[in-house]
What we know:
The protein is α+β, with helices and mostly antiparallel strands and 247 residues long. 35% of the residues lie in helices and 27% in strands.
Amino acid sequence: MTYCVGMMLERGLVFMSDTRTNAGVDNISTFRKMVSWEEPGERVLTLLSAGNLATTQAVVSLLDERTKAAGEREPSILAVPSMFQAARMVAEILREVIDRHADVGHRADSSFNATLILGGQIKGSEPRLFLIYPEGNFIESGVDTPFFQIGETKYGRPILVRAYDAAMSFEDAIKLLLVSFDSTVKANLSVGAPFDIQVIETDALRLGHGQRIEADDPYYQAVSQGWGEALKQALDSLPAFSWSSDR
């Protein structure tokens, strides 16, 4: 399994992904699930992936090949005129890869499924964020849906829903995401550090700060321990439960 989040802020976009993949408890590996492309001053894009590893790696490889063969047979993600067109291209490639590997029917098809998050900015337009489904369709983030999650989403979602603020800084957003990821790691062994982080600042049109956070990173450990202690203190501060006969 995996856990990835793409988040829209007033300042731009922030992405975080874990790196754990597994095919059983005795076959756990580390693979990067985040890839970025940029043409400084023109465009910058980041892609997060969850699902079948062979499928997601094939999609990234095809996108990379097209960027190196721009102007030839196939269009490149570095040449499309809008983020919408970029999302449509990625969705089409994802569907093609899944169809190519599926032998028969939906059962074979589902084993090669993958879900993607694509975000970025192309000169002349605002930053945009898309969630791309294995069926080849996609949706875009907005005011009511300012972030997308893929993979093992349920454990880390409550903190995002409660604490997200579009006006927060990149640093505060990363702190919030680390709490979300830590909650997921503690609840599901299929998600794990190191975590990859990428920031895209509005109108910078280049990759911003990027970093990998290891499991023993001092700041991550401080956030993890501090959040656990804060939850215990919050629980202790709530009124004590009493049986109905005592009320």
